[in-house]
């Protein structure tokens, strides 16, 4: 093999590569541009669709799953369109897309009754373990809770599903209990009447179940009493603060003394 044949062979090889590049170059550029457009569409369309689904009442976690499926579908369709640009048969692409869509819909319908659901939604007040606050966001992987002192806590959803969760927003009404302590020498019936009147005067307190003032427990030094009543959930915390102040002020007006819980420590002389 002489140098002339080698040179001719290399020249033919370069010409073949050049012709292939000339033919496929524009298609590759179009495919790259389309791929970038698909990725941008997935990013911004997902945020928009998620907001719309939550606004129309879909739970945030389900909306997150729906957006994830939309991302996957758009990426698959985009990839198939790119393949079509580089010469993949269009009819076959259409069949593949239809099969994927039908499988996705069928899978969702079949598995929907068995998909676990988180026991809360965005905006609920929940307690999970030592963490308590308002559900700020729900994603496929974790739940974000905003505590009342301004912290953000991220809890993996698998932990939420496996551990006890207290949802304070699940019911429209809340029962509030106010504890106060009365010495034995005070008039218990008068104390109950005063507190009962305060409860009746407060418009936030629901008539049913009826509010009650009871003796919850006897101790050696005082009676532990409770005012029990129901309010709409949003009034639960503020009503406790307000009524604590009203009970204290009314007791002072009526001359009713309140006892303070105390712990007595008795020391015995040594032997």
What keyword list fits this structure?
271 residues, SH3 type barrels, Alpha-Beta Plaits, five-stranded antiparallel β-sheet, 20% strand
Short account of what is shown:
This protein is 52% helix and 20% strand.
Can you characterise this structure?
With 271 residues, the chain is of the alpha+beta class. It folds into 3 domains: 7-111, no CATH class; 125-167, Roll (SH3 type barrels), CATH 2.30.30; 173-254, Alpha-Beta Plaits (2-Layer Sandwich), CATH 3.30.70.100. It is 52% helix and 20% strand. The protein is built from 6 helices and 8 strands. It has helices at residues 3-55, 60-85, 90-111, 157-162, 188-201, 236-254; strands spanning 125-128, 131-138, 142-147, 152-156, 165-167, 173-183, 212-218, 222-232. A 5-stranded antiparallel sheet has the order 4-3-2-1-5. The chain has a 3-stranded antiparallel sheet with strand order 6-8-7, with helices on one face. Helix 2 (60-85) packs antiparallel against helix 3.
Indicate the topology.
Layout: H1 3-55, H2 60-85, H3 90-111, E1 125-128, E2 131-138, E3 142-147, E4 152-156, H4 157-162, E5 165-167, E6 173-183, H5 188-201, E7 212-218, E8 222-232, H6 236-254
Helix pairs in contact: 1-2, 2-3, 5-6
């Amino acid at each position: 093999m002489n140098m002339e044949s080698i040179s001719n062979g290399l020249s033919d090889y370069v010409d073949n590569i050049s012709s292939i590049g000339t033919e496929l170059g524009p298609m590759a550029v179009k495919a790259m541009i389309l791929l970038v457009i698909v990725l941008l569409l997935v990013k911004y369309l997902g945020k928009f669709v998620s907001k719309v689904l939550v606004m129309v009442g879909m739970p945030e976690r389900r909306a997150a799953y729906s957006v994830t499926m939309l991302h996957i579908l758009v990426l698959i369709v985009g990839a198939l369109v790119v393949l079509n640009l580089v010469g993949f048969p269009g009819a076959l692409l259409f069949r593949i897309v239809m099969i994927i869509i039908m499988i996705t819909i069928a899978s969702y319908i079949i598995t929907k009754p068995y998909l676990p659901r988180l026991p809360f939604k965005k905006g609920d007040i929940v307690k999970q373990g030592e963490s308590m606050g308002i559900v700020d966001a729900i994603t496929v992987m974790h739940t974000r809770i905003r505590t009342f002192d301004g912290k953000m806590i991220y809890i993996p959803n698998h932990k939420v599903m496996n551990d006890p969760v207290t949802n304070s927003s699940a019911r429209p009404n809340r029962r509030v209990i106010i504890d106060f302590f009365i010495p034995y020498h005070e008039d218990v019936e008068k104390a109950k009447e005063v507190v009962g009147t305060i409860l009746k005067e407060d418009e936030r307190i629901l008539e049913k179940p009826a509010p009650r003032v009871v003796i919850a427990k006897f101790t050696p030094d005082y009676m532990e009493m409770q005012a029990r009543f129901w309010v709409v959930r949003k009034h639960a915390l503020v009503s406790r603060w307000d009524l604590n102040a009203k009970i204290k002020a009314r007791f002072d007006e009526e001359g009713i003394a309140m006892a303070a819980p105390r712990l007595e420590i008795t020391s015995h002389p040594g032997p």
